[in-house]
Description:
The structure is a single chain. By secondary structure, the chain is of the alpha/beta class. The chain has helices spanning 16-22, 24-27, 39-59, 72-82, 96-99, 120-129, 151-158, 178-181, 219-222, 230-246, 248-269, 295-302, 323-327, 332-335, 349-367; strands at 4-5, 66-69, 87-91, 106-110, 135-137, 162-166, 185-189, 200-204, 274-276, 285-289, 306-307, 338-342. α1 packs antiparallel against α10 (230-246) and α11 packs parallel to α15.
Amino acid sequence: MKPIYLDNHATTQVDPQVLDAMLPYFTEEYGNPASRTHRYGWKAEEAIENAREQLANLINADSNQIIFTSGATESNNMVINHFDNDYCISTAIEHSSIKNVLKDWCVDEIAVNQDGTVDLDHLHDILREATYFNAAFVMAVNNEMGTIQPIEIVKSMVKDIKVHSDMAQALGKINIDVQNLDIDFASFSAHKIYGPKGVGALYIKEPEGFKSLIQGGDHEFGLRAGTPNVPAIVGFGKACEIIQTESVHKIASRILSMNLKLKSLLRELIPDIIIHEFPKAVSNTVHIAVPCQDMDVFMSALEPNVSVSFGSACMSLHDANSYVLKAVGIPEEEVLRSIRIGIGKFNTKEEMELAANYIAEAVRTSSEGG
């Protein structure tokens, strides 16, 4: 039997409807959208434009404000590349594709409250003391804690400063309206919403004058050169369409019921477990610290039965000293015993019961020294 998959922050299973939509673009409609002299190219271009419209509809954007990329990491890098190496505002809990790229910039980091949201009082102090910033980087939903950040308030506070938001973990979990948020840039990844890996998008409020990261042909309005991955883009668009059909609220509600069941069972089976409760968080996240000293033994015992993560999928197995958890004041000893559980729409309540029992058994195994 395969392990129960509970690492849906890292990636998600491709929805069968998404796969069905993609298949013809491997075997039948395999044209290059840049080939504008024949039917195969026209059909490929039409498919990409349809996907662009599907994403635009989901986030309330115009389709000409969307460019397709290889994923949110590339989109994040594109935005940073657009600005000169200069002064910016970021948060202490940004994804590594923001945090690591900004390490050579002059960055004022907004502190984070214990509930996992940015400290707006600290942002006010930063803005009061600052003379100049050219950008602010604030993710919409944190990839480890699932905490929802007050993007609309941040934008109102920074006023004319350009705002970028990494929305990879937000798409499909909360309603996103880029017009109401009034942000300037937003990054997305298809594989977080039951679409294929290797494709994402960047929303640009004002595309004219945007600095391209990849030079070459005039693909993606001249902003991202290279032959587009047509099947993957079609899959991304279909995944967005499914979200609208199934409803963000309904998906989140069903996942929340599994979240609550799992936490209830864990408390019952493991009295000493610590469950990190973040009130303003998306429903798919369960974050716990297990009562064991040897996490290698624990994970070895758990892995054949349940797939979960230390911290972020971008961290190595033994680099679990999460800067995100430390930023919200969780003690280091507790951070080292923490795991992130990500529930997806294809999970079941029966799996929650099995997973709770497997986690409890792994705790017992680790306590006995393996």
